[in-house]
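Try this one yourself first.
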């Protein structure tokens, strides 16, 4: 039997233990994707149970076990190849043999793009398995942040409500001797500041020529400038990593004036008055505004109005 077929059969067997993977249930999930009626549960991020590590660990094992058996998201972000590789490298070939500390690698690879939930996963609500991979990754990071700060943003009103998390009372299967301790980072204040890419971009763009000189390689070579070695020693940011350059504030996407570029009213699409919101993001605003500008202009030609000022969402 091929590896992929064996994995698929394992996934079906696991799903049957939840009494959820009937053809009708799978069909309902597919219809939910196609009709846009996938149900997303509210995130109870102010409930104390949301931050309990043992509950998080149980849910991580449940969801990752389903993902391992299904593998429909193998071609999305690196979270899934990372998960599948760590499972395949165990002797048992099951999530039950993976130590919980390894789950951090899966979380770190997630970009929260939401493609798995929105497009691929056949087990999203209203399917009884209620798989919401992005929300689980968000929960892990919330717990990590709460541990790093020493407090969680809970309140009494939220605590009075019953905490709902799918199958939270079902015990996960774990092989004997496998650690169930989750791993969390505790970044320094400097690293926390560097994670605020909007603030870093705003500051670096004000001194764009100096910042770009410091971040670039020495002219005519592949060697980083000495200042990059200093940055590496302080921030652990590799001196040889390629970093994007910055543009001055006048060149940023949000400050671009495209009011003189009209939407093509003669285009067939214009009749329905379609609108598109362009989210500039830090990269599109501070580093590569040309991407947003080109997209903005290209949308106007077929009669589509880019919503907001020069790509800035409103």
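Now uncover the answer:
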């Amino acid at each position: 039997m091929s590896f992929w077929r064996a994995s698929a059969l394992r996934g079906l067997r696991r799903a049957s233990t939840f009494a959820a993977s009937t053809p009708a249930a799978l069909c309902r999930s597919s219809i939910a994707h196609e009709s846009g009626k996938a149900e997303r549960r509210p995130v109870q991020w102010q409930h104390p149970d949301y931050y309990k590590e043992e509950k998080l660990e149980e849910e991580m094992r449940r969801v990752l076990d389903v993902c391992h058996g299904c593998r429909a998201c193998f071609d999305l972000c690196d979270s899934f190849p990372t998960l599948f590789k760590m499972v395949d490298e165990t002797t048992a070939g099951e999530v039950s043999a993976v130590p919980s500390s390894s789950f951090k690698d899966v979380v770190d690879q997630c970009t929260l793009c939401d493609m798995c939930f929105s497009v691929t996963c056949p087990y999203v609500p209203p399917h009884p398995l209620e798989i919401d991979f992005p929300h689980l990754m968000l929960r892990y990071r919330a717990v990590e942040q709460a541990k790093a700060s020493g407090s969680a943003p809970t309140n009494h009103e939220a605590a009075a409500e019953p905490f709902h998390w799918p199958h939270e009372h079902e015990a996960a299967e774990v092989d004997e001797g496998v650690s169930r301790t989750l791993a969390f980072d505790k970044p320094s204040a400097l690293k926390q500041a560097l994670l605020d890419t909007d603030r870093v971009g705003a500051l670096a763009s004000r001194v764009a020529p100096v910042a770009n000189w410091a971040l670039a390689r020495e002219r005519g070579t592949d060697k980083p400038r000495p200042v990059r070695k200093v940055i590496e020693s302080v921030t652990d940011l590799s001196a040889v990593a390629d970093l994007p350059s910055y543009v001055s504030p006048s060149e940023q996407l949000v400050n671009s004036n495209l009011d003189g570029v009209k939407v093509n009213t003669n285009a067939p699409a214009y009749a329905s008055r379609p609108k598109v919101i362009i989210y500039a993001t830090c990269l599109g605003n501070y580093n590569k505004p040309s991407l947003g500008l080109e997209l903005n202009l290209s949308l106007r030609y077929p009669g589509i109005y880019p919503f907001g000022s020069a790509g800035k969402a409103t």
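Discussion: The longest strand covers residues 275-277. Confidence is low (pLDDT under 50) at residues 1-31, 309-314.
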